[in-house]
Amino acid sequence: MMSPEQDPRRRQIQGRHVSVGSVAKLKRSQVDVSQTGKRLTYSGSSLPEDIWRHICSFLPLKDAARAASVSHSFKRFWRCRPNLTFSKKTMGYKKNARRRRITTRDYNSRVDHILRNHLGTGVKTLRLKLYGIYNANTRNYLDSWLQIAVKPGIEELSLILSNIDHLSNEAIYEFPCSLLSNGSENTIRELDLLGCAFRPTVGIGCTGSLTSLCLSCVNIESDELGFLLSNSLALERLELNDCSEIFSIKIPSLLQRLSYVMVSGCSMLQVIESEAPNISSFHFFHDDDVFHDDDVDQQVQLFLGESLQMKEIFISHSCVLHYALVVLTSSMPNLETLTMHSYYEMVSTPTLASKFLHLKYLNISVFGWKFASAPRYADYDLFLLVSCLDASPCLETFNLDVPMRRREHDSIFEDPPSQLGRIPGQCYANLRHVKITKFRSTKLLVKLTCHILDSTPSLECLTLDITDGGPTCSEIDRCFVGKETFMEAPKALAAIQTYVEGKVPSTAKLNVVEPCSRCPAL
């Protein structure tokens, strides 16, 4: 038997042990280990300081702050750290670790300690999320932190006051716009504010280099926003969410670089007027209820001008289909993707000004339309949907979402036609993919589906979803299918078998999405 001393593996391990020990000895020679009580200091490597600073910038914020206490070098790197992101996640807090009030107080104290040990110089990105109810103490914290970090050279600033439910006009943080007149307005590129008041005035404002502006739940008036926009000539992206003081949005023609605009939930908004020539994507969400005939004047007026660059539009509003057919067809000739969520439609025949000659993707969702309760509007509603198809000769994909209830005498089986006559309309030569979600046995949907099959020679796939369009229990724990949908499903399936299946060409595939019969929720 081989002795332990003769075992080559043991000799190899011993050799490694000696090597490690030699390295450790060498390292100790670079450290002051005198017994005089002096602080231990490491001489560091021969890497340039800018490389060390770059390496340290990748450390998590909490670790970087801790490393600052190890040596003077690390402290110097920390005090010039360019990217600062403060949230409970970056600060190492776990969910439900402690009571909320204690956690919030401790969080603010830690952020305050970290920022006061930072010089504030060299900060390029500040993302600051504040928790808890706004009060005088919170205001003092915020004022102090922003004074430290917002200096010339900053490029991205994000301030999130998360507990906006407790904010009011009398108790809301006023963002100190004076900070943006100390030279930082010439370097800041992205500004993201949530849950505060923002009052830019003459002589104050982040204008020179601003490319992205996002305001959410921010108190800013129309003229203040107009002043800011007219002085932000480099702006490329504009987002306004739930800004309740804005009555009108006017986007000047001077914003030549502006390409993306999103407006959502501004409850007092009455008009959007844009003269910017190069917007390529426009998204507008308006919180409509189900309107009545006398409520048409509550609409937000949209004046988007004429834009050859517009490629994508998303509008969630009442009467949007009518608006698209009358206005957008002539003013947005190069539109490629159009998504419309309609809550109410005007009972008047739209006059087509032109056509969407380049439209490839059309998505329509309708909510609470009158044909759900008034059969006398059914012919008009069918005509309106067919008109949207007729206005899109190059259309390739059509998605229709119809969350409506079947009413009395609305089923195709309650008053079955002897035959479904062909509806006058165009031939959709490029249409290949059609999907109707929440398909029911209503006359309108059956007639529309048959019209598409009669007019689409190149159809490749027709999907009829007779569920509510949500995930199934094969994807999650349970299906999101309502009782009414489950009860209607057999009738919808019978309508497909009776009126639709025979019209599907052999070159096209019919997909029918049914409720899951095995789902325990049913």
From TrEMBL:
Pfam families: F-box, LRR_At1g61320_AtMIF1. Residues 1-10 have a biased composition (Basic and acidic residues). Residues 1-21 are annotated as: Disordered. Residues 47-86 form the F-box domain. InterPro entries: At1g61320/At1g61330-like (IPR053772), F-box-like_dom_sf (IPR036047), F-box_dom (IPR001810), LRR_At1g61320_AtMIF1 (IPR055357), LRR_dom_sf (IPR032675). It comes from the Eukaryota. CDD domains: F-box_SF. This is F-box domain-containing protein.
